[in-house]
Amino acid sequence: MHCHSFSFHHQNRISSQGISRKAADHSAAFFISINKIVRTFHEHLLEETKRMNGHLRHFEDLPLYVTEEHVISFLRSLLDVSRLQITIKVDSAPSTFAGIDPQDGQFFVAKKSLFNKEPILYKAKQDIYSDVDGDLAKKLLWALVYLKELKIKKNILQGDLLYTRDMIKKEDILGRLRITFQGNTLIYAADPASRIARDIQKSKIGIGLHTFYSGPSVQSLRVRFSVPKGSFTPSWKVWTPNLRVDISDSQFPRDIIKKCIMLIEGSQGTVSRISASKVGAAIEKYHNSLVRDGNITQNSHKYNEDLKQYPEFAKYASGVSDNDLQRLFEIRNLMRDIKDEIISSLKDSGKSALSDLEVYVRKKDGTLIETDHEGYVVVAQGMEPIKFVHRLGFSRYNFDDENMTRGWEKKSRQ
Question: 191 phi and psi, to 5 degrees?
Answer without folding.
Answer: -65, 125
